[in-house]
């Protein structure tokens, strides 16, 4: 009769307990989770401002802000310090889960997508595939976060729109997976170049300053290149707005607000995503188990 230990070996992958290290094989997952929690707690107020600016198409129902500082003062006056963390609950779950899954799955997908001669192209493909998988799982959390940041009742969402309502903005979000893919590809490319320059093996540990610089540069580049998708996703997820899909949303935004409308909230997004990305990547690299 098989012993209990036999069932343990069947249910638990050997990589988990190999060499007495229970976390062996899950280093990228844990590192991503730690980075996601740290970055979310640090940078959520920036995310709140970005969402409110991106959603503002000029409707009278929106709060009127004369700038980012005025927006912060208005929120503090109306809701206190807690107002800057409105919508944190879905983020504190969604961000760590997303980053943890992304870092964990990326390396597995990357090993199966060696189809291009250029390393950058393989990194980009792996990032896009991984991002799509993660988004399919976490999109409902981002819809809830958007609604909470815009002071909408999440409990009314399922009643009015059905379960499919939790996947509003999924298509631009899917297009937006190129954001993380571009960032991760640029980040890994710079790490590889740095390792070669220092005559180190690939993925060798580098100085903290290297991680700070590479994560900042990769985040700014990916944000500027892909920001319009964030505006479209936010507006599609806003229940006070009515659009017949991504094309309709993009057309109306461009017609009413010009090209600048597709970049509303970009500067505060960079202010948010720069420290967010830096904190996530540095904690991930320096979490002690990667």
From TrEMBL:
Superkingdom of the source species: Eukaryota
Membrane topology: Multi-pass membrane protein
Major subcellular site: membrane
Compartments it resides in: Membrane
Keywords, in A-Z order: Membrane, Repeat, Transmembrane, Transmembrane helix, Transport
The UniProt record lists the keyword Cell division: no
Any one Gene Ontology cellular component term annotated for this protein: membrane
Annotated PROSITE patterns: SOLCAR (PS50920)
Pfam families from the UniProt entry: Mito_carr
Solcar repeats: 26-112, 118-193, 206-290
GO biological process: nucleotide transport; transmembrane transport
Family: Belongs to the mitochondrial carrier (TC 2.A.29) family.
Protein's recorded name: Mitochondrial folate transporter/carrier
Organism of this sequence: Ditylenchus dipsaci
